[in-house]
Amino acid sequence: MYFTRTIKLITRFYGNIFLANFLVTLSCIYLLGLAGKNAQSLVFVFFWYKIISMMFIFYTAIYYKKNELYYYQNLGVTKLRLVLTTSGFDFLVWLIFVLLQLITGISAAVFNYILWGVLLIHVYAYYKK
Amino acid sequence: MIHTLEADGIQLDFGTRRILSDIYLKCETGKITGLLGRNGQGKTCLMNIILGSLKSSISSVRFDGVVTRKVNKRPDLLLYLPQFNFIPKELTVKQVLGDFRLSTDELNNRFPEFEGRHDLKVKQLSGGQWRTLELYIIVKASSLFAMLDEPFTHLNPIQIENVKQFLLEEKRNKGFLITDHMYNHLLDISDEVYLLKDGRTYPAKTLEELGQLGYVLLP
Q: How confident is the model at residue A1 (pLDDT cuts 50, 70, 90)?
C-alpha cells in the first residue's frame, strides 16, 4: 500500500516535467537519426546534452515547486527521493531510445512524427486539465 | 500512550550572526505547545531544524528520549504545516484526502463548508478553505506530532474559532507545536508557551509574562 502510494506520488511529480524531458530525449534521437553512420561517434555529445538539460529541468522544477515539496515530504517522499527516482527513470528512457536508434537506425522522420504526436497530446491534456 | 518531543542544545549561525543558541522546548501528546516570537527571531528556522531540513552546528531532537535525525523522512513521527500553501493546486479535495487516507465524510462532519466540494481542485477553493484543508490533513493524518507554522493565516474569525476547537479536540491523539503571530488565539488553546527571544526560549503563559519579556505592550 505504502509502495503503491509512493509510486503514485513520484509519477505525479514526474508528470509535471515529463514533456520537457521527453522532448529533449526525442530531439537527441532525431539528431542521431540525422547523423546516420556517424551516430555512434556523437553519442557522448548527446549524453552530455541530455545530462545538462536534465539538470536544468530538474532545477527549474524544484525551484518553482518548492512549496509543493512539503506535500510529498508529509507523505514520506523526500525531495532527494523524488529527484533521484524521476531523473533515474528519465535517463533510462533516454538510454533505451538511444540504443534502439543505434541498433535499428530508424529514420529521423519517424521520431519527428512521434515528437509532434507527444507534443500535441500533451498540449491537449494540459488544456483539458 | 504519552509521547514526548524535546528539542534542546540547538545552535544556529548565519555567518557571524547567531540566530539560536539556548533552546529548550518540550511537546507532549495531549498538549498544545505554543511558540511565540517577533519576526526574524528564528521560529521557522527552529521548526526546520526540528524537522531536519535545516542543518545546525549543534542540535538534539528527541522523540520519547531517543535522538532522531532527518525527521523529514519520518511522517509517522512528525508532520509539518508550513506557513505557505503547500498542496499542489491541480489536485482535487478528494485526491488530497485519498493521499493522506482520510475520509470525506469526516471532513464534512468537522467542516461542513466542504460538503459538495470534494471534486473541486484546490485552486478553486477560497484562501480560507485551502488553508483549512491543509490544516485538516496535517492534524488528522497519522503521526505522533504535528508542527503548525502560522495556522491561522488566511482564516476568517469564524474559521479561526472552528480550527481552535478542532485542535483542542484532536490534541488527545497527538502533540502540537504551534507558532503564530495571533498570540491571543495561541494563548487560548496552548497548554505551554515558549517565547523565542535573542536566540533563547523563555517559558511564558500569561500576557503579563509576555509583556515583561517585551513581546507585547502592557497597558
A: low
